[in-house]
Design goal:
221 residues, alpha+beta, four-stranded mixed beta sheet, 7 helices, 28% strand, globular
Amino acid sequence: MIPIHGKPLLEYIINGLVFAGFKNLIIVVGYRKDQIIDYFQKGDKWGIKIEYIEQKEINGTGGALLICEDLIKSTHLFLTWGDILVSYSVYKEVIDIFNKENQDYVLVANYTDDPFKGAAVYSENNYCIGIVEKPLGGKSKSELNNCGLFVFSKKIFHVLKKLKPSKRGEIELTDAINYGIKKGKWNVRVIKMEKGKFRGDFGDKQVYEQLKIDTEWKKEL
């Protein structure tokens, strides 16, 4: 619910998903969940249906996805972090590629000088061969960063249930992707965002403060 130019970040994300054609959303809530639920309610204002589920145990990105299993009725799902905003055309591109290429798994990556704050994505021929969560600064051999947008087959849940918590005590979505690639022979399609294409990481305070001052980025949505 962090405010940016008159509305919360989540509203920009929802607008992007609506632009891409989504009608049914699940929002994983936790801290100050009432603020989110009171603002978005059932989604009528945006012409969509929103369901909420609370992540009572903060046990990672994989843990957040795992609690959604019973709410997802379709064979595939689209996932986005709640603190990452991209141009709305990127959401649309993901869905277009998913539909046209009949992909089970899609991962969006953005270019960066050093992906140490996120996860380094390694790819060959536009398919992921590995992903490294929070690599040491200056040590990554890839300039691709996990952007935070995905399409997954529901098979992801079978893998998440097998994982043990990482050293950080979390169920890591990146571990599930690596497991699927190595053990399940998943073909994870990588969409590489154009260099310079807008991506706002609102989990980074410096980025947030700059985007509060600047308004040019809104033209790229």
